[in-house]
User: Which sequence fits this backbone?
């Protein structure tokens, strides 16, 4: 989707005229986050990207690479230090962006930062992949414009995990009325039995895979968030099976290359997030596949197959 051409002066400090849409992308110094930032700058000329990076130096390197594409992009990007696992870092980033925007508000938040496959520290994974989403939303929703968008980058690992759960647990992860307190309580319960596959199975929670479980919780949080904030368009999506620093260890652990496993490029992984940012998704509080079509929360939907039409 290509936005209307930019009008108005673009100052070096990031302050924009009324037509400029400001988008925060977390974890944007590499991989899918970088590709999302790149696609935003390419396809929506009336946008300004706050490139969120835990490491400011890596963020600046990524931003410089994006600026080299030429045109006005050098004036439409600003690096913001943000570690989604740390309360103070997130609050400081919100203050910085608020100071930059002045009286204008954000158009969108893209929650992309996360921990990938292969990490067995359940508490650590949940702290980034699920609680990290909440930290960012808590801090930035006050400066999000009405009608603004929140895009939570989750994973097909979420529905795949839910598909192995008991019917009661499946109902939990699909419940539109789920509360954050309920999500938090189940996360704490899971943390107490981390690593005990039999304990997870006995409680109807599959094998307790940290990554898949965290993404199932993130999708549930999206349901909660959309109900709490009907003035925004809030959805989650999977970028697909993408070759990034987070997924390459999975391939090497299987003795295969990313290409042999069918992994796609980060640029392809930006398709669904960019659609949720600038397209016309069906409603709010939904989960979308990598082909930007609605998908169920409790099972995998093959890209290219008919969109999910359930509740």
Assistant:
């Amino acid at each position: 989707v290509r936005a209307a051409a930019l009008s108005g002066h673009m100052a070096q400090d990031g302050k924009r005229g009324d037509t400029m849409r400001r988008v925060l992308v977390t974890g944007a110094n590499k991989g899918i986050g970088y590709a999302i930032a790149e696609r935003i700058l390419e396809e929506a000329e009336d946008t300004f990207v706050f490139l969120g990076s835990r490491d400011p130096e890596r963020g600046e390197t990524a931003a410089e690479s994006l600026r080299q594409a030429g045109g006005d992009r050098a004036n439409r990007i600003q690096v913001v230090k943000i570690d989604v696992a740390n309360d103070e870092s997130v609050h400081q980033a919100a203050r910085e962006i608020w100071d930059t925007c002045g009286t204008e508000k954000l158009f969108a938040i893209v929650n992309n930062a996360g921990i990938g496959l292969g990490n067995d520290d359940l508490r650590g994974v949940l702290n980034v992949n699920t609680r990290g989403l909440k930290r960012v939303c808590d801090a930035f929703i006050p400066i999000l414009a009405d009608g603004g968008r929140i895009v939570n980058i989750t994973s097909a690992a979420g529905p795949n995990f839910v598909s192995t759960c008991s019917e009661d647990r499946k109902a939990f992860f699909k419940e539109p009325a789920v509360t954050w307190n309920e999500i938090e309580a189940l996360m704490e319960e899971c943390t107490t039995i981390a690593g005990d596959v039999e304990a997870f199975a006995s409680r109807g929670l599959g094998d307790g895979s940290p990554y898949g479980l965290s993404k199932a919780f993130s999708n549930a949080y999206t349901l909660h968030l959309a109900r709490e904030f009907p003035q925004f368009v809030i959805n989650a999506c999977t970028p697909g099976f993408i070759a990034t620093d987070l997924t390459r260890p999975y391939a090497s652990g299987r003795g295969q290359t990313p290409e042999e496993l069918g992994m796609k490029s980060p640029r392809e992984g930006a398709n669904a997030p960019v659609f949720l940012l600038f397209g016309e998704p069906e409603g709010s509080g939904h989960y979308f596949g990598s082909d930007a079509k609605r998908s169920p929360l409790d099972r995998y939907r093959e890209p290219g197959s008919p969109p999910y039409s359930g509740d």
User: Anything to note?
Assistant: Confidence is low (pLDDT under 50) at residues 1-17.
